[in-house]
Amino acid sequence: MPKNEGEETPLMKQYYEMKAKYPDALMLYRMGDFYETFGEDAVTTSRILGITLTKRSHGSPGDVRLAGFPHHALDTYLPKLVRAGQRVAICEQLEDPKLTKKLVKRGVIELVTPGVSYSEYATDTKSNIFLASVYFNKTEAGLSLLDLSTGEFLTTEGPHGTIDKLLNSFQPKEVVYPKGQEARFHELFGGKFYIYPIEEWFFDRDAARDKLKKHFEVNSLKGFGIENMNCGISSAGAILNYLEMTKHDMISHITSVSRIDESNCVLLDKFTLRNLELLQSPYEEGRSLADIIDQTITPMGSRTLRRWVCMPLKSPEKIKERLNIVETYIRHENERLETEVLLRSIGDLERLASKIAVGRITPREMIQLKTALSCIPLLKEQCLKTESAILKKLTEGLEECRELYEKIGRKIKENAPNQINKGGVIAAGVNTELDELRNISGHGKELLLQMQQREIEATGIPSLKIGFNNVFGYYIEVTKTHKDKAPDSWIRKQTLVNAERYITPELKEYEDKILGAEDRILEIETSIYNNLICEASSYIRTIQNDAKIIASIDALISFAEVSITNHYNRPEIDDTDIIDIREGRHPVIEKQLPPGEEYIANNVYLDTAKQQIIIITGPNMAGKSALLRQTALIVIMAQAGCFVPAASARIGYVDKVFTRVGASDNISQGESTFMVEMNEAANILNNISERSLVLFDELGRGTSTYDGISIAWAIVEYLHENPKYKAKTLFATHYHELNEMEHSFKKIKNYNVSVKEVNNKVVFLRKLVKGGSNHSFGIQVGRMAGLPQSVIKRATEILKQLENDRDKNNQIQKNVETLASEREGMQLSFFQLEDPVLMQIRDEIAGLDINGLTPLEALNKLNEIKKITGI
Question: Can you state the angle between helices 299-310 and 540-566, rounded to 10 degrees?
Answer without folding.
Answer: 70
